[in-house]
């Protein structure tokens, strides 16, 4: 093309036609170079540039991540200035006091969680002693609430005639895993890769297995060793449940690997809408299969006994 600059003009627009393509949507790049100036004009040192047309889906995801990161950074700056008074004001008001943007659902959630919001407002603000009191007390509160959820679920299971093993893999598991779910969702939205989102799930499960089981068993073994008694915990239907869980977990991992290898998806998370829905439904089905088979075996409908 040809650009004609009038006297005192310093900018010009270039119209570039775009053609439809049947190929898979992806970023498109092309180079623009200025050459052969006439009329005494000269070119500067940089006379060429690369223009990239970003895929809409990737661009929207990038913008969403930038907005979420900006919001998180602003919230982090606000937290450093939060006082006890501000915490109680935000806990007692709908949507933290921002009524102009509060929806009907915000009002419902506020009244449902009012007690817990006020309770957690007693936790020290993050700027006290570098945030360590906040971290330690929050960890203690999480452990306390987890114990309450476990007891309530066990009582509820007794009322409706559910075995403890079924209650553990349904009510207790869902109640204690919701924080991990929201943490993984936040990581998936704010990070460019799936590492933090998937890693959060693996890290949480490793803590549950190695620390959540290992530490109590270690303390119980030491206690019984001092008392001179034998510490024995019957496995019950644990063997069958662990085998089913391992099979479904391997299938889930193979799905993640397959998503990365399929050219039209190319990632563990996200991708085309159809593949996202299919994978989500598949993972839910795996969970239902695991719970169903474990429950049937606990009810002795499936007669499989492993390890005794």
Automatic annotation (TrEMBL):
GO molecular function terms listed in the Swiss-Prot or TrEMBL record: calcium:sodium antiporter activity
The membrane-topology field of this record reads: Multi-pass membrane protein
Alphabetically sorted, this entry's keywords are: Antiport, Calcium, Calcium transport, Ion transport, Membrane, Transmembrane, Transmembrane helix, Transport
Q: Name one GO biological process term.
A: calcium ion import across plasma membrane
The transmembrane segments are 107-125, 137-162, 207-226, 238-257, 277-296
Tell me where it resides: Endomembrane system
Q: Which domain of life is it from?
A: Eukaryota
The name this protein goes by in its record: Sodium/calcium exchanger membrane region domain-containing protein
Where does it mainly reside?
membrane
Organism of derivation: Arion vulgaris
Coiled coil (residue ranges): none
Q: Which residues does the UniProt record annotate as the domain Sodium/calcium exchanger membrane region?
A: 132-294
One Pfam family named in its UniProt record: Na_Ca_ex
Q: What InterPro entries does the record point to? A: CaCA (IPR051171), CalX-like_sf (IPR038081), Na_Ca_Ex (IPR004836), NaCa_Exmemb (IPR004837), NCX_ion-bd_dom_sf (IPR044880)
Per the record, the gene is ORF159647
Name the GO cellular-component terms: axon; endomembrane system; postsynapse; sarcolemma
């Amino acid at each position: 093309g040809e650009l004609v600059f009038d006297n005192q003009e310093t900018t010009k627009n270039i119209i570039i036609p775009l053609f439809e393509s049947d190929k898979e949507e992806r970023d498109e790049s092309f180079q623009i170079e200025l050459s052969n100036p006439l009329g005494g004009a000269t070119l500067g040192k940089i006379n060429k540039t690369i223009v990239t047309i970003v895929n809409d889906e990737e661009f929207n995801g990038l913008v969403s991540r930038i907005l979420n990161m900006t919001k998180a950074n602003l919230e982090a700056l606000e937290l450093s200035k939060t006082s006890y008074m501000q915490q109680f004001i935000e806990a007692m008001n709908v949507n933290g006091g921002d009524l102009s943007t509060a929806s009907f659902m915000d009002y419902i959630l506020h009244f449902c969680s009012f007690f817990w919001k006020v309770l957690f407002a007693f936790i020290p603000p993050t700027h006290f002693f570098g945030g360590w009191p906040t971290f330690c007390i929050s960890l203690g509160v999480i452990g306390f609430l987890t114990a309450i959820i476990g007891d309530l679920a066990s009582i509820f299971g007794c009322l409706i005639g559910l075995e403890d093993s079924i209650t553990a893999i349904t009510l207790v598991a869902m109640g204690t895993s919701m924080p991990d779910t929201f943490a993984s969702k936040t990581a998936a939205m704010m990070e460019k890769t799936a590492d933090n989102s998937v890693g959060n799930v693996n890290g949480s499960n490793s803590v549950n297995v190695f620390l959540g089981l290992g530490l109590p068993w270690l303390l119980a073994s030491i206690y019984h060793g001092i008392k001179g008694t034998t510490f024995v915990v019957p496995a019950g239907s644990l063997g069958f449940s662990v085998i089913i869980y391992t099979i479904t977990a391997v299938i889930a991992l193979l799905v993640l690997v397959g998503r990365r290898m399929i050219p039209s998806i190319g990632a563990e998370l996200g991708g085309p809408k159809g593949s996202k829905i299919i994978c989500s439904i598949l993972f839910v089905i795996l969970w239902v299969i695991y719970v169903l088979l474990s429950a049937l075996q606990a009810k002795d409908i499936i007669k499989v006994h492993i390890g005794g």
